[in-house]
Amino acid sequence: MNGAIGGDLLLNCTDMSVLERQRAHLKYFNPSFDSPLAGFFADSSMINGGEMDGFLATAGLNLPMIYGETTVEVDPRMSIPLETTLGTGNFKKRKFDTVTKDCNEKKKMMNREEVTEGEEEEKSKITELNNGSPKSIKKMKIKAKKEENNCSNDSSKVTKELEKTDYIHVRARRGQATDSHSIAERVRREKISERMKFLQDLVPGCDKITGKAGMLDEIINYVQSLQRQIEFLSMKLAVVNPRPDFDMDDIFAKEVVSTPMTVVPSPEMVHSGYSHEMVNSGYSNEMVNSGYVHFNPMQQVETSSDPLSCFNNGQAPSMWDSHVQNLYGSLGV
Amino acid sequence: MERQIINKKKRVFSLEPNKNPSAVFTRKYTSHLVPALKKLNMNKNSSKQTVKHEVDMALALSAQEFPWSRFLLQKLSSSSNPTTTTSSSSDGIRILERPDKEGGNEEGGIEERLRELKKLLPGGEEMNVEEMLSEIGNYIKCLELQTIALKSIVQDST
C-alpha cells in the first residue's frame, strides 16, 4: 500500500516497517485519515498571526520530541494537516481505542496509548520525511513482545500483524534505563507534560509559571472562575429573559469595529471567518497575565470585535459589568 | 473563508459556517439555549435552577464530541436539580484559601491538584490522568465560548 513511500525514503528496514505498519493501521481503521479536520479550536497561537488552526495546536510543541527525535525544523503549520492537534487527536484516539480494543483482547492500556501515540509519531514523521530531511533517529520503542519486524511490504500482512498484537515497539533512549516499566513510566510522564504544555497555552497567565503544581493551580482557578462566571450569567439570564422577538441572527452578526482589542477567547471566534482579515491585521497579542484574566474579556467584550455581540459601539460597560468587576475584584486580583 | 458585508451595520457573515468548530459550537449552543429560554419564559417558571439547567443542557448538547459532555448529559437527565457547577464553587473557595497547604510537598501537591481538577470536570473522576488533562482543555474552550454566548444573550435582552 505504501510501497511508494518506502521507495522514496531511505530509511532502514526496521523503521520502514514500523512506519508502514502504523500507516496501514491508520488507513485500515480510518479511511478518511487523509482528510483531517482542521482542528476544533484554534488556540492562543492564533494571535501570533493566524498561522495555526488547530485545537490546542502544538504550537511550539513537537510531539515527536517525546520519542527522542529532533524535529525542531518541522514547521508547525506543516504538521497541522497531519492532525497533531490535541482535540481531534483525542477524538480519533477514542475511535482508535474502541476499534483496537475490539481487535485485540489482551491489550494493555499502556500499549493502546502507545498505538495512538505511535500514530501521532508516525504522522509527524511523515511530515519530517515530506520535508525532505530524514534523520537516523533513535526511536523509542517498548519491547513488549517478540514480534516479527520484517521488512514486509505486504500491506495485508502488515494489517493482520496490527490486528493481532497492537504493541508498538519502542527502543530505549541512549543512557537511560531500559527497564520496560521505567520506559512506560517515562512515556506516561512525557505525555502528561505534553498535555500540561497544551493547557499552558490555553489558560491565560500560565506561561509565567513554571512547575506543574503552580500551573495546575492556575488551571483549577481558571476553570472555577469560568464556571462561576457562567453561573452568574445564567442567574442574570433568569432575571432578564429573552424578548419574544429575539433575533438569532443578531447573535451571529458581527460588528466591524475599528479598535480591536485582545480578548481571551475571541481569536478563536473571529477566526471563524466572520472577520478574517480584521483579526489578522488588528490583533495584538497582549495577553494580560493577571491572575484572573476573565476580568479582561468582560471589560473588553464591550468594545472588542466580539462576533456575538451586536452592540459594539463602544458603549460604556453596563451596570452588571461593574457588579461583576466588584465580584471578581473581591477575589483579590 | 469568504465574508460578505451585508448592510450598513457591517454585519459579517461567513459563507462556510460549518468549517470552524468554535463557530459551530456557538451556533449549536445558542440554538439550543434560546428556544429553551423562550419556553421557560412563556411558562413563567424561570427560577435560577431551571435556567442553570437549560444552560448546562445546552452546553452538553453542543459539545457532544467530547466525553465530558456525555457525563454532563447523564448528570442533567438524572437529577432535576443539577449542581454541576454550584458545588464546585464551594470547592473553589477552599482552594483559594489554602494556598500553602501543599506548598511543601510538590509531588503530593500535584496529586491533590489533579484530583481537584478531576472534580471540576464532569466525568473527570472516571478518566485517567492523561485523558482528563486533554478533556480539561476542551472543557475550558467550551466554557469560554459559553460565556461569550451567554454574555451576548444577556446583552441582547437588556
TrEMBL record, chain A:
Subcellular location: Nucleus
SMART domains (UniProt xref): HLH
Positions of transmembrane segments: none
Domain BHLH per the UniProt entry, residue ranges: 176-226
InterPro entries registered for this protein in UniProt: bHLH_dom, bHLH_ZIP_TF
Chain segments carrying region Disordered: 111-137
Protein name: Helix-loop-helix DNA-binding domain superfamily
Automatic annotation (TrEMBL), chain B:
Biased composition (Low complexity): 77-90
Domain of life, per lineage: Eukaryota
Keywords carried by this UniProt record: Nucleus, Transcription, Transcription regulation
GO CC list: nucleus
Record GO biological process: regulation of DNA-templated transcription
Subcellular location field: Nucleus
CDD domains for this protein: bHLH_AtIBH1_like
Domain IBH1-like N-terminal: 23-79
Start and end residues of each stretch annotated as Disordered: 77-110
Pfam families attached to this UniProt entry: IBH1_N (PF26576)
Biased composition (Basic and acidic residues): 94-110
Name of the protein in its database record: IBH1-like N-terminal domain-containing protein
Organism in which the protein naturally occurs: Arabidopsis thaliana x Arabidopsis arenosa
